Amino acid sequence: MSTIDLIEAAADHLSGHVRRTPLLTSPFLDQIAGRRVLVKPECLQHTGSFKFRGAWSAISALDDAARKRGVIAYSSGNHAQGVAHAATLHGTRSVIVMPSDAPRLKIENTRALGAEVVLYDRASESREDIGEALAAERGLTLIRPYDEPQVIAGQGTVGLELAQQARDLGVETADVLVCCGGGGLTAGVALALDRHASGLRARPCEPEGFDDVKRSLAAGCIQANAATAGNICDAILTPQPGEITFPILNRLCGPGLAVSEAEALQAMAQAFLRLKIVLEPGGAVSLAAALFRKDEIAGDAVIVVASGGNVDPQVFAKALEFLT
Amino acid sequence: MSTIDLIEAAADHLSGHVRRTPLLTSPFLDQIAGRRVLVKPECLQHTGSFKFRGAWSAISALDDAARKRGVIAYSSGNHAQGVAHAATLHGTRSVIVMPSDAPRLKIENTRALGAEVVLYDRASESREDIGEALAAERGLTLIRPYDEPQVIAGQGTVGLELAQQARDLGVETADVLVCCGGGGLTAGVALALDRHASGLRARPCEPEGFDDVKRSLAAGCIQANAATAGNICDAILTPQPGEITFPILNRLCGPGLAVSEAEALQAMAQAFLRLKIVLEPGGAVSLAAALFRKDEIAGDAVIVVASGGNVDPQVFAKALEFLT
């Protein structure tokens, strides 16, 4: 099956298990952005981010024996929670390999959602090596965070919903800004839009200094980041675009957009004030691009996928300081 | 038309203009509450609270000449924003009479949404007197915040949505906890549930010390509050239940519930952490009751109407301190 067919199949598997997130608007955001802003708040998804979609899709696609043995994932946090919760709901076990410097809240939540958490040092160890070794040893299936067709398919259901919701609102042409780490969400959304809403174009959004996808799209080949830590947008700091995701992004996406940490925090503050939703920094870079990169965007409307809300209260308090 | 018929008619007028808010859940909240918790986040409604529903309903029910002359309302803030925005969207003008000690954010938003704001002193002046005088002088129609059938009808659409959503989730019997000031939302919800989901029972929730509705229900006749200021739940501090709303509440609601200011703040913190939504104190008393009054609630599931999210960042930061 091609990936777009996998997305349609994933939508069937996810139906009744995933939350269909609404599209939120505010005249105040429209004013800042200089155009109509439609925000899809995936922070309201189960486990607080879109990652639950891909996790559910991947686990539900396993054969019975593999699903019974369990799954393993490595993740800075949101994929971890998505896999842990989806595994528990499927009645199977999950092992999650997490960096020891991941936000405390994400580690605690992952454990509480039923996973066994194995911590590793982001600077000196490879999560891929650890994950693959544990998978072999215990007979677990590795659920990769983005370079995995079933995961991309699950994330692509965001794009299916968006295509329908934009049509219902009469929005035929718009850039769709997507928070982008390894590119699983962006690739899935791009494929779904390409099939179902050809006037909507996905554009990856990243933190400045960690804009590997933006640079890769500009170069036409995969470019790496110099580092994968040291930015407040922890959820989307990845080494480089995926081997599976990049060709999709390269074929279907518009140019990437990059924003500063301060702009991500200001976008969180505006989401608090105007939409009454909680975003984490990595889940707010798309809204930040809509609000603060308006000259790089065309059209009367812009669609924003706000991808997650798992943020420590201290970081959120920092965002609120922009309002006082 | 009876009020329940008005609700059905309001649902038609609101269709396409009001946001159908989802039902949110979290296994973490279920654990605290000791039962399944289903939260309807009306903070995600246009203008950040359910009040937009009643405002739209009332303005759309006016005859053309009256609608053209404009409307007036008195409000501590959420009704103000709802009326201002609904009036602007209907292409007419609004005058809003607000207490001078209302949260700054609510005053500013009301102006930005297109209203003329007239401030009054909550301690020495009567908002009713001011509102009625201005209405007479300028030919404006007064939109009362709760003791007004078309407003109750609009708020009742929350109940219509809930009846359907609970049925879809297989919840047939549950208490429905509703943040309650003058009783417009609670009365509308109670009427809608009585018609469409007879196993669901509305229960008003209030701040301790300002629990006029709870005491009125216990006494079987209207009881007043000793004060209408001096509590963090500013959105729901009203002198006493309405003349129109109380008989509805008395006939249809279960006993009232009252929570402390600290409990309202803790509920805001849990809504931030587990649902990724922003609630104001007065919009969180229902969730606080679900989490911290579990012995006063029966059944395997409880439904919470979280009524608004227009909170100053300083107050929200105070709620976040419960998490650190």
From TrEMBL, chains A, B:
Q: Tell me the CDD domains matching this sequence.
A: Thr-dehyd (cd01562)
Q: Name one process (GO BP) from the record.
A: D-serine biosynthetic process
Give one Pfam family, short name only: PALP
Q: What's the protein here called? A: L-threonine ammonia-lyase
Q: Which organism is it from?
A: Ruegeria intermedia
Gene Ontology molecular function: ATP binding; L-serine ammonia-lyase activity; magnesium ion binding; pyridoxal phosphate binding; serine racemase activity; threonine racemase activity
Please give the InterPro entries that the UniProt record associates with this protein: Ser/Thr_deHydtase_PyrdxlP-BS, TrpB-like_PALP, TrpB-like_PALP_sf
Domain of life of the native organism: Bacteria
Q: Which cofactors does the annotated protein need, by name?
A: Mg(2+); Ca(2+); pyridoxal 5'-phosphate; Mn(2+)
Which keywords accompany this UniProt record? Lyase, Magnesium, Pyridoxal phosphate
Q: Which family does it belong to?
A: Belongs to the serine/threonine dehydratase family.
Q: Which residues form the Tryptophan synthase beta chain-like PALP domain?
A: 15-307
